[in-house]
Every structure is written in C-alpha cells, then in structure tokens.
Design a protein that fits this description.
This protein is mainly alpha-helical. It has a domain of about 80 residues: Winged helix-like DNA-binding domain superfamily/Winged helix DNA-binding domain (Arc Repressor Mutant, subunit A, Orthogonal Bundle), CATH 1.10.10.10. Strands 1-2 form a two-stranded antiparallel sheet. The radius of gyration is 19 Å and the shape is globular.
C-alpha cells in the first residue's frame, strides 16, 4: 500500500454526507481516519526495517514517555496480558533496548528504563517515520496544512493523556475502599 494513499482517502471521507458537521459526525470520521493513519505508520515502520514489532516499538515509546513505568502499566497500555508483555519485555531487555530495575521506593516492584541503545533506536525511528509522513503531507496546500495543524491541535487538547494506572496492591485496596 502506498503510505500516501490515506491523504486522498481522508479528503474524500471528509466530504461524505454521513459525517455531518457535528460531534457525532466528527467521531464517526475519526473512527474511519485513525485506522488509515495507523496503517500508513505501520507500512512506513516496516519499510524502515527496524527489526521491531509494532508492539515492541509501542512498548519502548511508552517507557520513554513514562519514566519508571512498571510491567503492569506497560501491559495495560499495550492491551496485552501480563505473560505476553513479560515475554515482549524480556526480548527488549535481551536486545539491550530496555533495563529492568528495582523500584527504589517499593523493592517488590520492577520498573522499566530505556537504555542508551533504546533511546537511539527510538530517535532514529521517529525521525524516519516523521520524514515519511512529511513526504505524504507535502502534497497539501499551505492552507490545507494550516487547517490540518489547527485540527491536530484541537485533537491533542480533546484527548489529554490518560492518568497513570494503579500500580500496587496497596493502591488497589485503597481505591476499592473509597
């Protein structure tokens, strides 16, 4: 699939009557568009031959953005079971992209940390994907780019980052008592 194909599809989707100029119409359009964008990102990702699966890449990104993340938090973010996430993290540790460390506050808890090698991989991958996405978008006019920029800003403000997940049994017990 041509990674640029979603731009043409997006422009056409936005003109369809079933996506009215309402919150519901915009929600429907989002549900149509996000998979197209993710497909383009996956295609670009695979073209870069990063030798990582998309879940491994997402795990690295999560750990980078959430310093001190636990396996449970990473697992919840990925939507995987703990055993599946543990196996994925084991592979990333073995390849020296992640380290596991004891939490200095709670020694029963292990935290994940990106290594220098993991940081370098993410930096290079991010630059490569960003460059390809920019190539896809360069066919838009300056006015369309301005509209897209403003719209993405609106989306970013509309979808704030989710709060941290509950990580310890003590926290779980405390939240159930409330």
């Amino acid at each position: 699939m041509d990674p640029g194909a979603p731009v043409a599809v997006l422009l056409q989707l936005g003109k369809e009557e079933r996506f009215s100029l309402s919150a519901d119409g915009c929600a429907g359009l989002l549900l149509e568009i996000v998979p197209l964008i993710m497909r383009a990102v996956r295609t670009i990702h695979s073209e870069q031959a990063l030798d990582l699966t998309v879940p491994q890449f997402r795990a690295l990104l999560f750990v980078q953005r959430h310093r001190g993340a636990s396996l449970s938090e990473t697992s919840e973010f990925l939507g995987l079971t703990l055993p599946s996430s543990s196996k994925l993290v084991d592979q990333l540790v073995k390849r020296r992209f992640l380290d596991r460390e004891s939490d200095p506050v709670d020694r029963r808890r292990m935290v994940l940390r990106l290594t220098a090698r993991g940081n370098a991989l993410l930096k290079n991958a991010h630059a490569a994907v960003r460059a390809k996405l920019a190539d896809i978008l360069k066919g838009l006019s300056p006015a369309e780019l301005a509209t897209l920029h403003d719209t993405l800003g609106l989306l970013q403000r509309s979808f704030p980052e989710m709060p941290a997940v509950v990580t310890t049994l003590t926290d779980i017990g405390a939240s159930r008592k409330q």
